[in-house]
User: Fold Sucrose permease, major facilitator superfamily from Staphylococcus caeli.
Amino acid sequence: MRNFFSEFISNKSYFKNSITFFLFFAAWGIWWPFFQIWLSSKENGLGLPNTEIGIIYSINSVTALLFIFIYGIIQDKIGINRILLVICSIITSFTGPFFILFYEPFLNSHFYIVSIVGSVFLSSGFLAAMGLYEAVIEKFSRAFDFNYGKSRAWGSLGYAIASLISGSLYIISPSLTFGISSLFSMTLAIILIFYQPIKENKLPKQKIFTDTAIKFADLSHLFKSSKFLLFVLIIFFTCPLYLIFEQQLFPSYFLKFAPENYNGEKIYSIFTSLQVFIEVLVLMLAEKIISIIGIKKTLILSLIIMVLRIGLSILTDDFVIISVIKVIHAFEIPIFILSVFKYITMHFSTRLSATVYLIGYIMIVELGQIIFSTPIGIFQDYFSYKTTFILLFLIILSTTIGSTIALLNDKVNSPLK
Assistant:
């Protein structure tokens, strides 16, 4: 834990990038855990059915897909540069006004128009931007010699702290969560624009751009390679379905079993915060876990955790166990994200790392959500949560088994292991 904080003093690039993570995820975490609940709740939200919620998630994913592709190509061309992050932080500074003055008042009366406009805002500032923040800071971590996992942990810490207070704020008024999100984002924009660590100024700009510049031929070769296509298929049939389970289905499922004499939204926010605090601790240990069992095995382990969470949700109606299932999510996120980064860096050119991550992972996840969100929402409306969970369980389990063969083994004596 001491090293977690001490590097703030010794490495100012680590400091700026960690604060960037903290504020971005705080700005997102203050409202995002309750987005599905807000859309579906008749008492404290918009009261939309699962079919329309699925449509919103699909439209968001379509738009995010476009932004991810644009962000990925531009970022690999400009190299180690935060200009896109500055733009994203300025966009999210308008979260409060956007949701309070536009999205909430007009979504029910002009559903498709508002959903499309909303998807542009959400995708450019949050959904597509998350992968951009991660890819950019991963490049900075290699250029300025700091531990990416520790820096990313500050993002989880920001999300946890924001989630902890979001439940109480949501009960008072959902508008408060959107307004505070704007404050976090404005602070982030100011830091990104005006604070420049001396250490980062010492790296020659020529080296920054020359070493990372890519050509169309590089992308053409990448998209045709079998190792890239297999990686994409594994991501496509696991992550989008798991995120639909976690974001689109599980929040309402959780509230369904909450004790009647307690406020379900507040309980959910507490467990979300607990989950993310554990996530911070796991992120601090993730590098060690990967170094012990290897990148491929860690990636497969994270897929097994996905299967475990959905499987347990099928088997139980006990609220205590369902709460534990919520917290288990904390063990999947850190090791999955870090092992994906290390798998990409080990098996693909480092010059293309942002492209592979944003297009081969983030973009494919969004594409999967485009394809699956609405059908799964309709399926759940006609059947039940558990029947839907069984479908997701079987697909992800089959893909996890296939990944043991399809994923490349770790390179012997690789320093990235």
Summary: Residues 204-211 have pLDDT under 50 and may be disordered. Residues 111-143 form the longest helix (33 residues). The two ends are 23 Å apart (CA to CA). Residues 65 and 253 are 28 Å apart (CA to CA).
